[in-house]
Amino acid sequence: MTARLDLSSLPAAHRPDVDPAKLSVGIVHLGLGAFHRAHQAVFTEQAAALSGSAEWGICGVSQRSSAVRDQLAPQNGLYSVLTRGQGDSSIRVIGSIREVLTAPDDPAAVVARIADPAVSVVTLTVTEKGYRAAAAGGLDLTDPEIQADLAGRPPRTVVGQLAAGLVERSRAGAGPLTVVSCDNLVANGPFLRRLMEDYAAASRDAKSLVEQLEVARFPASMVDRIVPATTEADRDEAAALLGVRDEAVVVAEPFLQWVIEDDFAGPRPEWDKAGAILTSDVAPWEQAKLRMLNATHSMLAYLGGLRGYETIAEAVRDDELAGLARELMSDDVIPTLTPPDGLDLAEYGGSVLERFANPALKHRTAQVGMDGSVKLPVRLLGTIRDRLEVNAEPRLASLAVAAWMVSVAKATTAGTPLDDPQASRLQAAVSSTASAPALVDALLGVESVFGADLPGNAVFRQLLIDQVSSLTR
135: which of 21, 86, 244, 463 lies 20 to 30 Å off by Cα? Predict the structure, then answer.
């Protein structure tokens, strides 16, 4: 099969819900990975189809490599989403991405798109590490890439790109911008606003940037869909279903959710028509998802990886690990949460494990476990702090942290690369540890992960020592 995905070779049953040629760019998305293509881009196309609007095409920006651009360009931005549930797979072609840029190759074009008066919304999925935050929560102004952007080079960081785009919007007289973070961060919208304010304070364009930030909006949002990495077998299955080859296919579960704070500076797609929840308070949804789904995902990734399981589904089929995951949610997490209206936390926890058990997804434990130093503070350490504050022992949440510690030590001993933005620091810390207490103290001492409070908590430290000892025995 040699035909590539395009409208002329696409069977009518699989054509997008909108005519891609009629869409103009109104959204810039930073971080054009598989998750965005399986999530926000799907919502955006459905919203355009249901509302009849044509101004919400997406300009997607890849922050690192040109791989996504090289896949999408020959297909005129088209790609398919292969949905795998417990039954037969289904597939649909998406046409909402109308332009693809690669930031390292053409940073000026990225800034120009953000500054375009036709653009009123910027969305982001750049992962936790893409924000370049300091341990204290603000922008890491010592980061060499942030410093280079502040010095005036064509920006390469997302904060630098947004700042330069806002300055150009000011010069062009463009309207105010809404910036929607879709990453797994606590209060991601206000968090990003703070980073932008820190950048503005250090910028040579401080006056115009501050003026733009005063009218811009940074709504919080919560996103949910499991999107594993695409394999060649996935591409083969998509080709069999479509009748043409799609090099850019992404794989996802049937479940799809987006909760957005209803705080926009200007026009926006009618995402609510496509099923997104617009609300005045995202926090309860966000906390439930981060502390239940994401934390459990991390626990299963680390414990499953230590037992040799390649995928999350394999880990969930281990009765002991599934039981520990249930206990994490019921014993440690749920007591810290206030559920949003209409969400039964116990039922939600059960649905999380059902989704993880989907064998068709093949979500790798290594993929879920990467970037632990920036994921643990968001997913697990808040729960641990809340439990310790009421004199409760966070036994299961601590076990997940202990499994991460053992995973770091195991990779270091084996000489295996650690996929983490702080890999060199973590591996240097554990390189000479020979006992469970030494390993725990070495990693607890990484303040950018554990802060200044947790290393001094005797209950937490002893839990970790006991659990690391058990896991390494």
Answer: 463
Q: Is 2 part of any domain? A: no
**Per-residue pLDDT reduced to its tens digit, 315-328:** 999 999 999 999 99
Residue 1 within a domain = no
Residues 326 and 455 in one domain: yes
How many domains does the chain contain in total?
2
Token pair recorded at residue 438? 């030494």
- Indicate whether 231 and 305 sit together in one domain: no
Contact (CB, 8 A) for 189 and 122: no
Q: What is the pLDDT of residues 201-245, one digit of tens each?
A: 999 999 999 999 999 999 999 999 999 999 999 999 999 999 899
Same domain membership, residue 309 and residue 242: no
pLDDT value of position 1? 47
CATH number of the structural domain spanning residue 29? 3.40.50.720
Asked if residue 299 and residue 243 are part of one domain, the reply reads no
Q: 136 lies in which domain range?
A: 7-279
370 and 267, same structural domain? no
Give the Å distances, CA to CA, from 332 to 383, 385, 389. 7, 11, 12
How many angstroms separate the Cα of 289 from the Cα of each of 269, 327, 337, 430? Answer: 24, 16, 10, 31
C-alpha closest to that of 404 among 366, 433, 435: 366
Is residue 32 domain-shared with residue 93, that is, in the same domain? yes
Among 124-128, 241-245, 249-253, the least confident range: 241-245
Going by C-alpha positions, the residue among 388, 383, 381, 405 that lies closest to residue 467 is: 405
pLDDT at 274 over 90: yes
